[in-house]
Design a protein that fits this description.
single chain; 754 residues; mainly beta; 24-stranded antiparallel barrel; ten-stranded mixed β-sheet; 2 helices; 45 strands; globular
């Protein structure tokens, strides 16, 4: 994305505030004529449009004069706000590829950050490359949500002076206050990728000593007399599938063709509220999840959410978990697996956003966490309800609350809690999260067969679904400070043994955690290094009874070199108690490097060499584990992109070279873009995992071709298939593989706006 990805880190000692100039202001007027979005900027509607210029380079420069000239223009009518750019440059240097939406970030591009409420909590991001390919998302505090999609029109052309872009953003696509005159925050930006740098240029300067970027946007005034005029939307779709699988006699059985109708309805209520209903929705993901190594992981795995129904409002329902505690997500929408009916309500009253999700899930899985491991249990049909409130304060602060409830098979799990972020001053922030859970187990031990007999909470409770009821809680608090060159934080977290998140994601409970870190980042003026940072962190982990579980000390050194190359070295020595045994002398050494050689070729390398716990054997013991990952991005033409990647994981005995396990994954992701709407994608993935302790071998090959036509984010046509091959009857010594299963599918979905 467009922003500087380099971490700008924080420290508690010595409060120093550097005050930047007042952000610039742009006063816009209503257009007196029509504007056709074609990139030419020759319509009379642009006459008298407000102009923003004087862009500065914020990366790698620090508010230095931009090396190229950029001008942005803004006007509006009753339906749209119009933004255009003139990006001056030598046209031979401009990078512009035909790509699918949201895949143009390696090109030149221009765009805006728009905060319609001016409270620095959330901003719309719109980006367009020189030939009109769109990208969008949301900036939420210091994070980005690239899954967010919105409807707007764009076009771009390359000229003798550089390139030009036009954007028409409908007022119906954004939310804003119900006021006669709008006072928004905005900045215009330009990304300039060249051999040595990807230069980032903004209209409003950015003070690196202020971690709140959204607080530093410019002002946009003068838009008057507009209404959202949001239309009612219907999203009908038809899904057809035909599948087959290998039966117990190794005979491939073909199933009948099945078709299913679905309907999504979005109803606007007033200026700021929408109700979205999904009847029999197709909640499958077209993009296949990357297979993860799990042979030595005792915990449930988390996967990203890509399903369109959860697109709008994803920032609201995140409840801070993705940002501060990646292994604790109070709302994990992937836990809503296969709903027959789903409802979502989003709205705003004053400075408070609210959201509701309700669903009838036909196939429900629940993560059952324990002190040293977790398990996924299937409970069949469930009813899910989530309520979320988030009250925005100024300068990026907020306070929120969430209630989640899941009812299933005579049992239920309810979670109630609060989270928030409050800036004590420009650099110092307090972050918190506190939840309580109320669990009523079903009285059906057949549902909990995989965990029956396990006891927890001081042996007072059983994991068996035998009708028990109990409460639990979780607390997280962090004090952090960021300045231009320093970063530090101090945190405490605890999870009681009976804490559950049936509608969220929780890897383990029965834990207390205390730690902190200190980092420094410098920007030397050299011909080789753009920036470097050093981090040192330490912490202690206890179980809930204050028995020591882990001691760790982490250090890392990161270099950002000129020539678009970065490297990171880290070292993590630890001691850990696992299943009542203390393991000392554990070590983790990691190396990571990325290099962009040109517009066409990028390469990445990751490696780790560890002394770690081999957790899946009984009793567990120490071993030597290694991990290697290599990826390549190759774009031989403007329409073709090839991305192979290779991963290898292994663990060996300390005293010899024999293996506990080893595995590898080879993945090839290839796309051909016929035009901005039509594309073909092919994913091939070979996965091999061998367990030498128990003699288990898993070998598979997956193939996923897909042809897609997508004129906007919500109107789509897919036709594709999924092929799964498993190891043949000769075992892992042979490369014979059987066609284990296959699915052919098509989907047509069309957005109707009334």
């Amino acid at each position: 994305m467009f922003q500087n990805k380099i971490a700008i880190l924080l420290l508690f000692i010595g409060v120093s505030s550097l005050f930047a100039d007042e952000p610039p202001t742009l006063n816009v007027t209503r257009t007196l004529s029509t504007i056709t979005v074609d990139g030419r900027l020759d319509d009379d509607g642009w006459i008298g449009a407000a102009m923003a210029d004087g862009f500065v380079e914020v990366h790698p420069g620090d508010n230095t004069p931009a090396i190229v000239n950029t001008k942005a223009f803004v006007t509006y009518d009753d339906e749209n706000i119009y933004i255009s750019f003139k990006a001056y440059d030598n046209p031979k240097n401009i990078r512009a590829n035909i790509s699918k939406r949201d895949n143009m970030y390696r090109d030149d591009f221009v765009g805006i950050l728009l905060d319609t409420y001016g409270q620095a909590n959330r901003a719309y991001q719109i980006m367009v490359n020189p030939i009109g390919i769109q990208g969008d998302g949301q900036k939420i505090g210091q994070n980005e949500d690239e899954s967010f999609d919105m409807i707007f029109a764009s076009a771009g052309i390359i000229t003798d002076e550089g390139y030009q872009v036009e954007i028409a953003l409908p007022f119906s696509s954004i939310r804003f206050p119900n006021e006669d005159e709008q006072h928004w925050r905005i900045t215009f930006f330009r990304s300039l990728p060249r051999d040595d740098f990807r230069r980032q240029m903004l209209w409003s300067p950015v003070d690196r000593n202020n971690p709140c970027m959204l607080c530093q946007l410019g002002y946009l005034n003068g838009i008057k007399g507009i209404k959202s005029k949001r239309s009612m939307e219907f999203l009908p779709s038809i899904v057809g599938t035909q599948s087959g699988e290998l039966d117990s006699n190794n005979v491939f059985q073909e199933n009948n063709f099945n078709s299913d109708l679905a309907l999504g309805i979005k109803i606007p209520i007033g200026q700021t509220t929408t109700i979205e209903i999904a009847i029999n929705p197709d909640f499958s993901q077209i993009e296949a999840d990357v297979t993860q190594f799990d042979v030595n992981s005792p915990f449930a795995l988390s996967f990203p959410e890509r399903r369109p129904f959860f697109n709008e409002g994803s920032d609201l329902f995140s409840a801070g978990g993705h940002e501060w505690q990646p292994n604790i997500k109070p709302v994990y929408t992937r836990s809503i697996n296969d709903p027959s009916l789903a409802l979502k309500v989003l709205g705003r009253i004053g400075s408070t956003d609210y959201g509701i999700i309700s669903a009838v899930d036909e196939e429900t899985g629940i993560i059952i966490p324990f002190e040293d491991w977790s398990s996924l249990v299937s409970v069949g049909k469930s009813n899910v309800n989530i309520i979320r409130l988030k009250h925005a304060l100024n300068n990026g602060s907020y306070i929120g609350g969430v209630i989640t409830d899941k009812r299933y098979a005579g049992g239920s799990g309810t979670t109630i809690g609060t989270d928030g972020l409050y800036y004590l001053n420009q650099n110092l922030a307090f972050i918190w999260q506190a939840f309580t859970s109320i669990t009523f187990e079903p009285n059906d031990t057949t549902l909990s067969e995989s965990i029956n007999g396990i006891k927890f909470d001081g042996n007072n409770l059983t994991a068996d679904f035998d009708g028990e009821s109990y409460n639990g809680h979780q607390i997280f608090a962090k004090l952090s400070r960021k300045t231009r060159n320093y970063f530090s934080n101090l945190f405490y977290a605890e999870k009681s043994p009976s804490f559950r998140l049936d509608t969220g994601f929780l890897r383990q409970n029965h834990q207390r955690n205390f730690g902190g870190n200190y980092s420094i980042i410098q920007y030397p003026e050299t011909d080789l290094i753009e920036s470097y940072s050093f981090t040192i962190a330490t912490g202690r982990v206890w179980n809930y009874d204050w028995d020591i579980k882990e001691r760790w000390l982490y250090s890392s050194l990161n270099f950002q070199f000129k020539g678009r190359m970065s490297t990171e070295l880290s070292f993590l020595p630890t001691s850990e108690s696992y299943l009542d045994s203390m393991f000392t002398g554990l070590k983790n050494f990691m190396f990571n490097a990325n290099k962009s050689f040109s517009e066409k070729v990028s390469l990445g390398l990751y490696g780790s060499n560890n002394i770690s716990i081999i957790r899946y054997i009984n009793p567990p013991e120490k071993g030597r584990s290694k991990s290697i990952s290599v990826w390549l991005s190759f774009k031989p033409t403007a329409k073709i992109k090839i991305m192979p990647s290779f991963n290898f994981n292994s663990a060996q005995y300390l005293d010899n070279d024999d293996y506990y396990y080893k595995g590898q994954r080879l993945r090839l992701f290839t796309t051909y873009q016929f035009n901005k709407y039509l594309s073909f994608r092919l994913i091939g993935q070979y996965f091999y995992q061998e367990d030498f302790v128990y003699g288990d071998v898993y070998k598979s090959f997956d193939l996923h071709p897909l042809l897609s036509y997508q004129p906007n984010p919500f109107t789509i046509f897919y036709i594709g298939s999924s092929h799964d091959f498993d190891e043949g009857p000769n075992g892992y010594d042979s490369f014979d593989m059987f066609h284990n299963s296959r699915q052919i599918f098509l989907k047509f979905q069309y957005l109707i706006q009334t």
